[in-house]
């Protein structure tokens, strides 16, 4: 294992065993020349439960203009209908302070709030997974760039050595020519 991860150990500057799990994962992917990027959204969607799917749907609908407009229409209809019945028949199924309407609104809020919180918790989990994945991809990219720099430096050094050898050879040939010339 020590020999296998020597490149990443050199680049990161710490032994493989002392790296955290994500850094070890990146080191393995570099030494094995494997891709690290993946579709985290698909991973999460494959493991989603029916309750989580329902919570997301409720949160999406509850946070939309469609919901706000429909809710406003229902509230206005409730108030107008009760007021009309009260004015015309002197009796209403939910008279003016609209206590029944308040009860329904409270029940809706008490059910909707935890569902939205469940959806937000799932979104936070998605965000955390995406952040961890981004870290791994960025770390691997950074290490790969460092490896490329190292290879380019080695190539440059070998080219310089070759150029110096050619120059020495040319100088020797020039020296031979100068000796032969009267």
Low-confidence stretches: none
Q: Please provide the ordered H/E string of secondary-structure elements.
A: HHHHHH
Biggest β-sheet, characterized?
none
Shape: rod-shaped
Query: What is the SS-derived class?
Result: mainly alpha
Total individual domains: 3
What proportion of the residues form beta strands (DSSP E)?
A: under 5%
Number of DSSP-assigned strands: 0
Mean pLDDT: 87
Considering the chains and any ligands shown, give keywords for the structure:
about 180 residues, mainly alpha, 3 domains, 6 helices, about 80% helix, rod-shaped
Could you characterize the architecture of this molecule?
The protein is mostly helical and 182 residues long. It folds into three domains: 1-37, no CATH class; 49-118, no CATH class; 143-182. The chain is 80% helix and 0% strand. The chain contains six helices and no strands. The chain has helices at residues 6-12, 21-31, 40-46, 50-62, 65-89, 99-180. The two termini are 67 Å apart. The mean pLDDT is 87.
